[in-house]
Design goal:
600 residues, mainly alpha, Potassium Channel Kv1.1, Chain A, 26 helices, 7 strands, BTB/POZ_dom, Phototropic-responsive NPH3 family protein, NPH3_dom, ubl conjugation pathway
Length: 600
């Protein structure tokens, strides 16, 4: 830390509680200066020789002892004591912690060059420009002290000088950083591998792009806002670095943000959250979607205002494809009966869909058809996230069906290449809402496209007692159609080429077809279903494989027979688990099974 000593006479001030006097003096004190509860027993001449303010207050004639009350001097008694010692020529030490107070007090006392050459104001200004503002950490310390001396520090442009000093250093090329800084963070992903290996010669240490981030976390929110605004104005620092700085500051000041359900605060915390939201760079990706959602949770719980909430929702929608399901589980407020705020997520998804549609229009020159155009990669990812979110909120028995349906249909059907995730969410909702009416069940299940269910999902659906019979029949029909199509392709291949080559080609194509479907959702089901058990007795060949071509027909016949006899569909309880992502199962190849059936 930089410091400056003024004066040469020994310090003879004695501090006796609330009374300060000159100890080694042959002259009796002839003026008493009272600042707050502190009294200074001083002499007129030293004060009059340096301070124009006292020249206006102290009469030039008369030897009587006078007392002066000063109530509004910036810095209070401590700052006045520095000025008084300077008047006596005593040794005074200035540093980053007291220089602003001394400078403002000197201005109040009018200790300028018109009174005496080399006065205190002049010396402090030299110290600030030649030392303090050239130091990175001293500039930050000084900026932190200015708040206690407003509006003086602002009127004297001390605040603006501090901000300019800090912002300029933060914006400098990292190769020119030669001062010490605090850095306990992980490097940015783009900077990994930049450290030069040791080769026996001392090399310059690599300076990360966000070297300045941690030191600024000591500032209060008002000073921090001014510094970040100045840095953004200069335009030299990448937006992702600024975003990382704001994120680090937020976690330093609000450590409970990572556990947002525990966050609490007053108007000061709410104001800080609003300021942080306003400081975020406008560029997409400057901060993570996860961090934005944490901010949204906090602002939602603390009721930081509709403008702040809408701004965060708009930013989140722009990069919603980066979100995780756990990030979207935002709890409700105001005593809502539901666990999670599904309305909030619905608004975000709707905003994402609007933005994605605008992007598609720009890409296609303003001509786009939602029903025909291929969905963007972001839309496909968001559809998968929405399905995962629906599966989680479906566990809440208080979620009304219309909210579930509204969110599910917000994402268009062609944005879901595979409907396994949607099927899992619907099945979970049906499980947690057993009293759901037939019309609501039918409406929910109509969201699914049975042709887009994977073989494993189809196998699970045909034994799922929670699904309407109509849906199960559709699943069985499409399974049969898919198997027949595969058999036709196989037969055509046999007619064109040799048996071995056609067998290899048809089988490979069929397996690739299933792989392409499963790769989108990466979901799996239980290995054994009742559908398989129904066909075991009559459809197994010598090698124990089920004849896939006959399976759907036989299952459908048994299902209809069971329905006619009991009026109710039965199923094992294994369907309660729906689709279990952690299990792996062999791929079904209807083409092979059908071929063997034909050969037999």
């Amino acid at each position: 830390m930089k410091f400056m000593k003024l004066g040469s006479n020994p310090d003879t001030f004695q501090d006796d509680g609330n009374e300060v006097s000159i100890a080694a003096s042959e002259l009796v004190s002839d003026i008493t200066v009272r600042i707050g509860t502190t009294k200074f027993y001083l002499h007129k001449f030293p004060l009059l020789s340096k301070c124009a303010h006292f020249q206006k207050l102290i009469p030039t004639t008369g030897d009587e002892n006078i007392e002066i009350h000063i109530h509004d001097i910036p810095g209070g008694a401590k700052a006045f004591e520095i000025c008084a010692k300077f008047c006596y020529g005593m040794i005074v030490t200035l540093n980053a912690y007291n220089v602003i107070a001394a400078r403002c007090a000197a201005e109040y006392l009018e200790m300028n060059e018109t009174v005496d050459k080399g006065n205190l104001i002049y010396k402090i200004d030299i110290f600030l420009s030649s030392s303090i503002f050239r130091s990175w950490k001293d500039s930050i310390i000084v900026l932190g002290t200015t708040k206690a001396h407003l509006p003086w520090a602002e009127d004297l442009k001390l605040v603006s000088h501090c901000i300019e000093s800090v912002a300029s250093k933060a914006s400098i090329d990292v190769s020119k950083v030669e001062w010490s800084y605090t850095y306990n963070r992980k490097k940015l992903p783009t900077e990994n591998g930049h450290d030069s290996p040791w080769n026996g010669v001392k090399q310059q240490q690599f300076v990360p792009k966000d070297w300045w981030v941690e030191d600024l976390t000591d500032l209060d929110i008002d000073a921090y806002k001014q510094v970040i605004t100045a840095i953004k104005t200069k335009g030299m620092v990448p937006k992702d670095v600024i975003g990382e700085a704001i994120k680090a500051y937020t976690y330093k000041k609000l450590p409970s943000l990572s556990k947002v359900s525990m966050i609490h605060g007053d108007a000061k915390v709410r104001a800080m959250l609003v300021t942080i939201t306003c400081l975020l760079p406008s560029e997409k990706g400057s901060v993570s979607c996860s961090f934005l959602l944490k901010l949204l949770k906090a602002t939602n719980l603390l009721k930081c205002g509709e403008m702040c909430r809408k701004e965060l929702m708009k930013r989140i929608a722009r990069q919603l494809e980066e979100a995780s399901v756990s990030d979207l589980l935002i709890p409700t407020v105001d005593g809502d009966t539901t666990v999670y705020d599904i309305d909030l997520i619905l608004s975000i998804v709707e905003e994402f869909v609007r933005q994605d549609s605008k992007n598609a229009q720009r890409h296609n020159g303003g001509d786009v058809n939602d029903h025909v155009s291929a969905p963007s990669a972001s839309m496909i990812t968001v559809a998968k996230i929405v399905d995962g979110y629906l599966a989680e909120v479906a566990k809440d028995p208080n979620i009304p069906v219309y909210k579930f349906f509204s969110l599910a249909e917000t994402v268009s059907a062609n944005s879901r290449p595979v409907h396994d995730g949607l099927y899992r969410a619907i099945d979970m909702y049906l499980k947690e809402h057993p009293g759901l009416g037939k019309s609501d069940k039918k409406r929910l299940c109509a969201l699914m496209d049975c042709k887009k269910l994977s073989p494993d999902a189809c196998a699970h659906a045909v034994q799922n007692e929670r699904l309407p019979l109509r849906i199960v029949v559709q699943v069985l029909y499409h399974e049969q159609t898919r198997a027949s199509a595969a058999a036709t392709i196989r037969a055509d291949s046999i007619g064109i080429g040799s048996y071995e080559s056609s067998r290899s080609g048809a089988t490979t194509n069929t397996e690739d077809e299933w792989d392409g479907v499963m790769a989108v959702e990466d979901l799996s089901l239980s290995k054994t279903t009742k559908l398989d058990k129904c066909d075991t007795a009559s459809n197994k060949g010598a090698n124990g494989r089920v004849k896939g071509g006959a399976a759907p027909k036989k299952a459908l016949g048994k299902l209809m027979s069971s329905k006619g006899q009991t009026g109710e569909r039965s199923s094992s309880d294994s369907s309660d688990s729906a689709i279990l992502p952690s299990q792996e199962h062999p791929k079904r190849t209807p083409a092979r099974s059908t071929t063997k059936s034909a050969a037999a």
